[in-house]
Amino acid sequence: MSKLTDTQTIILSRAATRPGNLAMPLPEGLHGAAAKMSVARMISNGWLEEVDADIRRGEPLWRETGDGHGTTLIATEAGLEAIGIEPVVPKATNVPRKAKPDPAATSEASEAPTPPAIRAGTKQARIIALLQRPEGASIGEIVEATGWQGHSARGMISGALKKKLGLAITSRKEADRGTVYSLDA
What we know:
By secondary structure, this protein is α+β, with helices and mostly antiparallel strands. It folds into two domains: about 5-95, Arc Repressor Mutant, subunit A; about 125-185, Arc Repressor Mutant, subunit A (Orthogonal Bundle), CATH 1.10.10. Helix content is about 40%, strand content about 15%. The protein is built from seven helices and six strands; from the N terminus they run ααβββαααβααββ. It has helices spanning about 5-15, 30-45, 75-80, 105-110, 125-130, 140-145, 150-165, and strands at about 50, 65, 70-75, 135-140, 170-175, 180-185.
């Protein structure tokens, strides 16, 4: 078994004091490549595990997965044992979480697809709110709301909203506003 560095010891010690053994946030000053390298080594040693973040509970993100969700880090039993802490009996703690659920179990449990979660306060949420208005939104209005270039706004509508999220967005030409996009109800 590898020897713990000071940074790894700090991460695991802090995780042991947090609910659910959350390892996030990482210590101040640990970011970028150093954080990735340290966390990657801890995951490979089995001391940390990457799990889906519960954004509703305000769990800090380790990384975003690109589909509107993110992951966080938790200390494993092996990680707690590495710093000399006896793991708590599993029934007394929260239900263990996994980042990737078993596909066989989930396919039988839910036949209907679940709608994607959209985080409030993001530019994507602002665009969706603009598109939901009865009058819709022109590219100029979206550019003004987001600070993006026109091609980025059109790419967001085409790629993220239509293709990835599967939203039904229609467009129409208006003389005074140009192309206006709206979200079908």
